[in-house]
Amino acid sequence: MISSDNAQTFAWQFNENDQEFSLQGSLRPQRVDDLTGCMTALENAVSTVKGRFYLNVRRLVRMNNVAFQAIAQKLADTCTNRPDLNIQITTSSVVGWSTRKFAALQATNENISVSEYDSEFYPGQTFLEEGGFIPILRTQTKLTWHHEREILRRHGMQPGLQMADICCGIGDFAVLVQKEFEPGRLVALDHSKSSLDYARKVADEFGVRGIEYVFGDASEMLLESNQFDFVTCRHSLQVFNHPEHILQELFRICKPGGRVYITNEKNSHCLGEPRSETIQWTYNEVAKLWAHFDMDIEFGPKSRRYLQDAGFDDIKMESFMVTNLDGNPQDFADIIQSWENVYAGQMAVERGDNPEFIARFRQGFQDHIFAAKHPKGYAGWPIWVASARKPK
Amino acid sequence: MPEASYSPSSPNPAGNMIELDLDVQDFASDWSNCDSMSSYVSRMVCHNRTDSLLFANLYSSALNELLETAFRVHGRTGQLVCRFRRTGDVDRIEIDMPSDDGVLSFYQGAVDLARGPDAQTVYLDKLFSSDVPDMALSLLELSVDYGADLSLTRDDQAQRLCLAAELVLEEPKP
Ligand SMILES: C[S@@+](CC[C@H](N)C(=O)[O-])C[C@H]1O[C@@H](n2cnc3c(N)ncnc32)[C@H](O)[C@@H]1O
């Protein structure tokens, strides 16, 4: 249900299987008559459903009172004529006004309930958002920046571009980009309010101005179509069960001729010496564990296919390896330790793994840390970068 | 699209950010003016807010209701002047328009209702009771849903009135 065109175009749609009627875009008619088509469709939809009727306004970005009154009255009439029906309205926290506005209907009709869609966006959300990941994201970005700073140039990044970083996390990549490249505009979007608060605080503290940190859902963004020269989405397609939906949105907001830049991992290719075998075993298990939660930590090399399928051309792809030699080996070790904490300490437990498995699983991370800190050791974490152009 | 004067650095004494000035008949000749103007202005004033997208969406929604009201109820000839100001977290929108007795009494009545103690009840009442969209609904909603502080000043000699809405659209910074 991603609009291929502009987020603002008005459209409606009825899904009979789900008994769900959805409105999307901008709805500001002059007269009630202008809505006849939509109202008739709504009426027809209601006449076919039994039990529960869903009205989905998550992507309804703007609506004036002419439209609201018409819809409110239609729903109130429905409640009177069909007391058997239960009407469930889903709003979005991203839009801002809709929950408050539709709540008026709930207050006056007991068969109408309004709920804000805001959780369970992607399978591993709780692990990543509450798993003490914030400090680790910082260390990760510190180490990846070491490489990406140059890589970005090869993929078309340059000063003055209109840029968006989608799924920006705690926003430190945006800060680094702002300092290094001075884009003309930089929008950084994420669906974690705590990460955004953190991001704004950091930018403030470091006196970095001009980054617009915005709350949003990457699979249904309020950003208008065709407005960015360079759209980045780092380490994030791999956490969604439908990465193609996110890619479609990245494609939509990118200008024709602009580029989308993604980075992803393939964790089973993490490596280390000494103790390579136990390390290898653990990271193979990491891949299976993520798959269990419908996420794909093996996404990296699949980037080319996904970009092609999404309609991009001029695909450029490369990989790089973050290693213990990039800087302080302790930074590398900290990342691995946090992985162990989240993967073995939370996700494996949640999957119901037995203590023997978990102990062996943990050992591989410890061995990776051992390799990283060993005076003759080598430890690596490979990452795939891909960028592609939206055809003109 | 009407012409606009825009001063990007806002901290001038009146907090004036943008002013739109157009012939009221031109304005009222095309309904889509309301949407274009509110989208345009909201995009201009949102950039330095905590969440620019959310702010723009709320600002555009509130402004659009004011403009749609002015579209329907205004004096016949003269200029429609819209001023957009900001002091701290308070955004002030002024819609300055030609008026006559009928226009004035509509706005006076609507603002009184919106400022009154029963605004919430009246709002729900009008939402469900009247078949024709009630022209006061927008102002009521601004007050009830957006917590807007509405006020009216009039210049009888010039036959003009100015509808002002003061809004705080963002929660204070943590
Ligand atoms: C693994 S983190 C990557 C963060 C950042 N790009 C980095 O490299 O450090 C994934 C991010 O995606 C965000 N996210 C998850 N679901 C989202 C959604 N539906 N819309 C926007 N962001 C989302 C999470 O809040 C999290 O910050």
TrEMBL record, chain A:
Cross-referenced PANTHER family, in alphabetical order?
A: METHYLTRANSFERASE (PTHR43591)
Isomerase as a keyword of this entry, yes or no, is: no
Please identify the protein, giving its name as recorded.
Ubiquinone/menaquinone biosynthesis C-methylase UbiE
Q: Which InterPro entries match?
A: SAM-dependent_MTases_sf
Please, which domain of life does this record's source organism belong to?
Bacteria
Tell me the organism's taxonomic lineage.
Answer: Bacteria, Pseudomonadati, Pseudomonadota, Alphaproteobacteria, Hyphomicrobiales
Q: Which residues cross the membrane?
A: none
Keyword annotations for this protein?
A: Ubiquinone
Automatic annotation (TrEMBL), chain B:
State what protein this is by name. Ubiquinone biosynthesis methyltransferase UbiE
Q: Which organism is it from?
A: Roseibium denhamense
